[in-house]
Design brief:
Blueprint lengths: L1 H10 L2 H68 L3 H6 L1 H14 L3 E8 L4 E6 L3 H6 L8 E7 L2 E7 L5 E2 L15 H7 L5 E2 L3 E2 L6 E8 L5 E8 L1 H9 L7 E5 L5 E4 L12 H5 L10 H7 L5 E7 L2 E11 L4 E9 H4 L1 H47 L14 H29 L3 H16 L3 E8 L2 E8 L18 H6 L9 E7 L2 E11 L5 E9 L7 H45 L6 H17 L13 H12 L10 H4 L12 H24 L6 H22 L7 H11 L2 E4 L9 H7 L9 E4 L8 E3 L21 E4 L2 H5 L8 H19 L10 H5 L22 H16 L11 H13 L5 H9 L2 H9 L21
Antiparallel strand pairs: 1-2, 1-9, 2-3, 3-4, 4-5, 6-8, 7-8, 8-9, 10-11, 10-14, 12-13, 13-14, 15-16, 15-19, 17-18, 18-19, 20-21, 22-23
Helix pairs in contact: 2-11, 11-12, 12-13, 12-15, 13-15, 16-17, 16-26, 16-29, 19-20, 26-27
C-alpha cells in the first residue's frame, strides 16, 4: 500500500497542487481588493451626488423665486400707471414701447396685457424667433404682436424688432373678452396679486402661469403670462449623467418643467386634450410613473425593471404655490466612476495573475493533456468514430490504466455497434442471421457456427457458417427448459446465459459456445452454437458480452416473428373482408380476388419494359405489399352498399321483384272484367263475351310488355316509354288500407303523405310521392368536403316510382341506385384513410380509391386527371374494367369474350377513360391472355388480333 502511494506521488506532481493553490489565493486577494475599492469609491460618489442634488434644488428655487418676483414687479408698475382705453387709442406707440421694453427686461414674461370692465383689451406679446412668430400666425420678420379690442373693434398688429409696423395682408380680426377669462375673474374678486394654477397657453402651447391684479375701483385688471420654458432650460443645464431626468411638478403630479422639454408635449387626437398638462402617471416613462407614486420628501432608491435609480424630491416654497423638484438618475451611471475604479483594480489584478500563472500552467499542462486526449477519445467513441481512438501513455498511473480500459471498451462497443447496425440495415431476415454469424466469428474466433430457431415440432436450422453441424440431440426439443443442458444455461437471476461446453462433432470433441435466445416471456425461441478447437475458452467478460449480443439478435428474431404474425393477421383480415364482399352477393363471384391478380400481372409486365414510358417503372418489396393490399381492398366500401342494389337484376327489383305486385294488379283487372261480364249476364243486361275476351288478351299482352320492360336492356325506345305511361293509366280498385302491417319507421316516413280514402281507384303503374325517399345530408356530399370528392348528387336517396324504374333507358339501375353503387368507392376511400397505415403503405387509399377515375378527369369520385393518379391506380382501373367485362357471374349480363372486352376497352382508351399506354402494354405483353387461361371459361377465349385494338399514337 505504501509503495502504491509512492508511485502515485511520482505520477502526481506536487507542483500542480501548488500552482492551483497560488492561483486561487491570487484570485481571492484581487477580488477582495477590488470590492473594497468599489465600496469606498461608491461612498464618495454618493456623497458628491447628495451635494449635486442640493445645489440643483437651490438654483432652481432661486430662479423660480426671481421669475415670480420680477413678474409681480412688472404687473404692479403697470397697475400704478392706471392706463385707460383712451390712452391706448391716442398714444399706441408710447404703450407699445413701454410694454415691449418691459418684456425685453423680463425674458421670462411672454406677454403683458390690460383688460377693462367694458370688455376692451390690450396685449403685447414677444416672439423669441421666426418659428415662434409663425406659431402665433405672424410673418417671419415679426418680433412683437399687439392683440387689441378697443371701442368694440378687435385686430392683431405685428411689429419688427425695432417696432416698425408690418402690414398684415390678411387683415384678420381679433375677438376676445377678458371678462370671461379665469385670470380676470380671479383678480376682480381680490385686492392683491393672484396667480393662476399652471396651464398650457392656448396659442403658444407653452406651460406657464398668469399673474394678475385689479385696479382698486375694479375698472381694469393688469396681467402677465409667465412661461416655464426657461425653467425647463434651467433643468436641462443641470443634467449631470446621460439618463438623468429633472422635473418640476405640483401636488396633483402635473408636470410643469422637464429637463427633456419634449416630455411636456401631449399626444392626443382631441385638441382640447392637447391643451391639458401632462401628468407624471401619463408619461410613457416607467421611472416617472414610479416617481409619481413617491410620497415622501428626500432621497430614495427606485427599482424599475432590472435597473435601480437614485432619486430625490425637494419642496420649492415660492409663495404663490408649492412646487416639487424631482431628480432621478440611474445608479449604474451614478456609480460609473466607482465601477471604473473597480474595473481598473480588477485589470491590474488580472495582469498580476497572468504574470504568475505561466509557471503553474506548464506543469498543469503535462497532466491535463492526456486527460484531454481521453476526453476526445470518449467523445469519438460516443459518436461511434472508432478510427480516432488511439492508446494514450501518461506518467499518471490512473490515466494510463483508464486509457487501457477505454481501448478495451472501444473494441467491445465497436463490435456491439456493428451487430446493431446489421440489425438496423438488413431487410432480409436470412441475410441478417448470416451476417450475425460472421460477426460472432470475429468476436469469439470460432470458424464454425449455426443458429437454430424454435418451431412447433423442434428446431429448424436458420443460418450456418463453416461446416454443417447438427443440433446436439439433448437440445432438439421445443420444450427446452425441460432439457438438462438448456436448463443449465438458464439462471434464476438472468434471462439468458452463454456457456462453454464440450460437444461431439464428426467423432471429435469440440469446445462449443452455446447461447440460448430467450424472449421476454422466458421462452427459448432459438439457439446459437459456435464450435472451436478443444480447450478453447472464453473469458467471463466475453461471455457476458455475448449474452448482450444475443439479446440484440433475440429482439430481431422476435420482431421479425411479430411482424410476420401481424402481416399474416392483416392479410387474413383483408381476405376476410374481400370474401365477405364476394359472399354478400352471389353475383359478384371472386371479383375481389381476381382484380388483385390481374393488377399484379400488369405491374410485372411493366417491370419487364426496358424502353418507353415504363422503362423506369419498378416496385420494391414495400411497394408490392402496398399494391397487394390496395388491390384486395379496392372494393371494401361495398360492405355499405345494399345487396338488393348490387344484385338488382330487373328494373322493379328492390329486396324482392315488384313485378309480382304488377302482375297481381293485372290479375285483379282481369277478374274485375270477368266479374262485370257475369254480373251483367246474371242481371239480364247485355254482355258481349267477345269484348271480354279482347280485353283479357289486351291485359295479357300489356303485362307481357311490362314484364319485358322490367328485364332491362341496352336501350329503350321512346315509344315503349309512352306505351308504359298509357298502360299505367288503367285503374284498379283498392279497398284495403295500404298502411296496415308496416314498420314504425316506414309509417313515420309516410306521415308526410296523407292516406287516400277507401275505396280508392289506383293507377295500374304509378309514380307516387311516397315512392321518393328524401336524402339525408352528408359531409361527403358537401362541395368543400375534406376528401376532395366531386359528386353529382341526386335529389332523392331512392326513387321507387314504378314508371320511373320501368322507363330506365339502359340496364336496371335508376340514377339514385347508380349513385348508391358508385358510393362504394367513396366509402372505400373514407374507410382506408381512417386506417393507421405505416408510412410505406401511405398510398393504399390513393391506389385503391382511384380505379374509377378516368384519364380525362371525368371519372369519380374526385375527377382526377391522369397525371394526378399513381400509375398503380391506373393499372387497377384497367384490371377492374377487364374483370368486370369478362366476369360470367353477373345477374344483368353475360361474360364477354376476349375480343368483345378488348374492343370495348380500345374505345375507352381512345376516349381516355383508361390509360392508353397501359392498355397498349396490356395487349403487347398479352396480360389478357395469361389472365384468361386462369380465370375465363373456354368459350370466352376466342382469337384476338391485338393490332385491331392497339391505341393510335397522338400526332404531335
Amino acid at each position: 500500500m505504501q509503495q502504491r502511494d509512492m508511485v502515485r506521488k511520482v505520477r502526481f506532481p506536487l507542483q500542480l497542487h501548488l500552482a492551483t493553490i497560488m492561483v486561487l489565493m491570487l484570485v481571492v486577494t484581487c477580488a477582495i481588493i477590488a470590492i473594497f475599492n468599489y465600496q469606498k469609491t461608491s461612498e464618495i460618489v454618493s456623497s458628491n451626488q447628495r451635494a449635486i442634488f442640493s445645489e440643483i434644488g437651490e438654483n432652481v428655487l432661486d430662479q423660480t423665486r426671481y421669475t415670480l418676483n420680477s413678474a409681480q414687479s412688472a404687473v404692479l408698475n403697470l397697475r400704478y400707471i392706471e392706463p385707460t382705453e383712451q390712452d391706448f387709442l391716442e398714444k399706441p406707440e408710447r404703450w407699445l414701447i413701454m410694454l415691449s421694453n418691459a418684456l425685453e427686461l423680463q425674458p421670462f414674461l411672454s406677454s403683458i396685457y390690460v383688460g377693462f370692465d367694458n370688455g376692451s383689451f390690450y396685449l403685447v406679446r414677444r416672439f423669441d424667433d421666426q418659428a415662434d412668430s409663425l406659431r402665433h400666425g405672424g410673418p417671419l420678420e415679426a418680433r412683437y404682436s399687439v392683440n387689441q379690442v378697443l371701442k368694440g373693434k378687435g385686430e392683431i398688429q405685428f411689429y419688427t424688432e425695432d417696432l416698425q409696423f408690418i402690414a398684415d395682408p390678411l387683415g384678420r380680426e381679433y375677438t376676445y373678452d377678458p371678462r370671461e377669462r379665469p385670470w380676470y375673474q380671479l383678480a376682480s374678486e381680490q385686492q392683491e396679486i393672484v396667480v393662476t394654477s399652471p396651464y398650457r397657453f392656448f396659442t403658444s402651447q407653452d406651460i406657464g402661469m398668469t399673474l394678475a391684479i385689479a385696479a382698486p375701483d375694479k375698472r381694469f385688471v393688469v396681467g402677465a403670462d409667465i412661461t416655464l420654458v426657461e425653467m425647463s432650460k434651467l433643468l436641462q443645464r443641470h443634467v449631470f449623467t446621460p439618463s438623468t431626468e429633472l422635473v418640476v411638478y405640483n401636488d396633483s403630479k402635473t408636470l410643469l418643467a422637464h429637463s427633456n422639454p419634449s416630455r411636456l408635449e401631449v399626444q392626443a387626437d382631441n385638441p382640447r386634450a392637447r391643451q391639458e398638462l401632462p401628468n407624471l402617471n401619463q408619461l410613457d416613462v416607467p421611472v416617472m410613473q414610479r416617481l409619481a407614486q413617491q410620497q415622501r420628501i428626500g432621497e430614495f432608491d427606485l427599482k424599475v425593471g432590472s435597473q435601480t435609480w437614485r432619486g430625490d424630491v425637494s419642496l420649492m416654497e415660492v409663495g404663490v404655490a408649492d412646487l416639487y423638484l424631482g431628480i432621478v438618475t440611474p445608479l449604474d451611471e451614478l456609480l460609473g466612476e466607482a465601477k471604473l475604479a473597480r474595473d481598473t483594480s480588477m485589470l491590474l489584478s488580472t495582469i498580476i495573475m497572468v504574470i504568475s500563472i505561466p509557471i503553474a500552467w506548464m506543469f498543469s499542462r503535462m497532466i491535463s493533456k492526456p486527460l484531454r486526449l481521453l476526453k476526445d477519445q470518449s467523445e469519438a467513441i460516443m459518436s461511434f468514430d472508432f478510427a480516432k481512438s488511439k492508446p494514450i501513455d501518461s506518467m499518471v498511473q490512473e490515466i494510463y490504466q483508464l486509457s487501457n480500459t477505454t481501448e478495451r471498451m472501444k473494441a467491445t462497443i465497436e463490435q456491439f455497434a456493428e451487430v446493431s447496425t446489421i440489425v438496423g440495415e438488413e431487410n432480409s431476415f436470412q441475410r441478417l442471421l448470416q451476417r450475425y454469424l460472421d460477426e460472432l466469428n470475429k468476436i469469439v474466433g470460432m470458424p464454425t457456427g449455426a443458429i437454430w430457431l424454435a418451431k412447433e415440432d423442434g428446431y429448424e436450422l436458420a443460418a450456418q457458417r463453416g461446416e454443417k453441424i447438427a443440433l446436439p440431440e439433448q437440445l432438439n426439443d421445443v420444450q427446452a427448459a425441460r432439457q438438462p443442458l438448456v436448463a443449465s444455461l438458464l439462471n434464476e437471476s438472468h434471462h439468458r446465459r452463454a456457456s462453454m461446453v464440450q460437444v461431439s462433432h464428426q467423432q471429435q470433441v469440440h469446445s462449443a459456445m452455446i447461447c440460448p435466445l430467450i424472449d421476454r416471456q422466458r421462452k427459448v425461441i432459438g439457439l446459437m452454437v459456435m464450435l472451436g478447437e478443444p480447450g478453447t475458452l472464453l473469458s467471463r467478460q466475453r461471455l457476458s458480452f455475448l449474452n448482450a449480443l444475443s439479446g440484440v439478435i433475440t429482439v430481431a428474431v422476435e420482431n421479425r416473428q411479430l411482424i410476420d404474425a401481424q402481416k399474416q393477421l392483416m392479410q387474413a383480415f383483408i381476405e376476410l373482408i374481400a370474401d365477405a364482399i364476394d359472399a354478400k352477393s352471389p353475383y359478384t363471384g371472386a371479383h375481389c380476388k381476381r382484380v388483385p391478380e390481374l393488377t399484379k400481372m400488369l405491374a410485372r409486365a411493366a417491370q419487364y419494359e426496358t424502353q418507353g414510358e415504363f422503362a423506369s417503372f419498378s416496385l420494391n418489396d414495400d411497394q408490392w405489399e402496398e399494391l397487394h393490399i390496395a388491390s384486395w381492398l379496392h372494393d371494401c366500401g361495398k360492405v355499405t352498399t345494399p345487396e338488393y342494389v348490387v344484385d338488382k337484376a330487373t328494373k322493379l327489383e328492390t329486396i324482392y321483384d315488384r313485378i309480382h305486385e304488377v302482375r297481381m294488379r293485372f290479375e285483379v283487372l282481369k277478374r274485375d272484367a270477368q266479374l262485370e261480364y257475369w254480373q251483367a249476364r246474371a242481371q239480364g243486361k247485355p254482355a258481349d263475351k267477345r269484348e271480354l275476351e279482347v280485353l283479357l288478351r289486351e291485359l295479357d299482352e300489356e303485362f307481357a310488355f311490362v314484364a319485358n320492360c322490367n328485364q332491362g336492356g341496352e336501350f329503350m325506345e321512346k315509344a315503349d316509354i309512352a306505351r308504359l305511361k298509357t298502360i299505367g293509366q288503367r285503374r284498379w280498385l283498392r279497398t284495403l288500407d295500404d298502411r296496415l302491417g308496416l314498420s314504425h319507421l316506414e309509417l313515420d316516413r309516410l306521415k308526410a303523405y296523407p292516406a287516400k280514402p277507401l275505396p280508392h281507384l289506383e293507377a295500374l303503374l304509378d309514380n307516387k310521392d311516397e315512392h321518393c325517399q328524401l336524402r339525408t345530408p352528408s359531409a361527403v356530399e358537401q362541395p368543400e368536403n375534406p376528401w376532395g370528392f366531386k359528386l353529382n348528387v341526386p335529389e332523392f336517396e331512392y326513387n321507387r316510382g314504378e314508371l320511373h324504374n320501368l322507363s330506365i333507358a339502359r340496364g336496371t339501375l335508376t340514377e339514385e341506385e347508380r349513385y348508391k353503387i358508385n358510393d362504394h368507392i367513396v366509402q372505400t376511400i373514407i374507410m382506408l384513410e381512417q386506417l393507421p397505415f405505416p408510412s410505406y403503405l401511405s398510398n393504399v387509399p390513393a391506389i385503391a380509391g382511384g380505379h374509377h377515375e378516368k384519364m380525362d378527369g371525368s371519372g369519380y369520385p374526385r375527377c382526377l386527371m391522369r397525371e394526378q393518379m399513381p400509375v398503380t391506380a391506373r393499372m387497377m382501373a384497367v384490371a377492374d374494367i377487364f374483370e368486370a367485362l369478362t366476369a360470367s357471374d353477373r345477374p344483368y349480363k353475360k361474360g364477354k369474350t376476349l375480343s368483345q372486352a378488348l374492343k370495348i376497352m380500345s374505345f375507352m382508351a381512345k376516349d381516355e377513360h383508361i390509360d392508353p399506354a397501359l392498355f397498349r402494354l396490356f395487349l403487347e405483353r398479352r396480360v389478357y391472355e395469361s389472365y384468361a387461361k386462369q380465370f375465363l371459361d373456354k368459350e370466352q377465349i376466342d382469337e384476338v388480333d391485338i393490332s385491331d385494338y392497339l391505341p393510335q399514337a397522338k400526332s404531335a
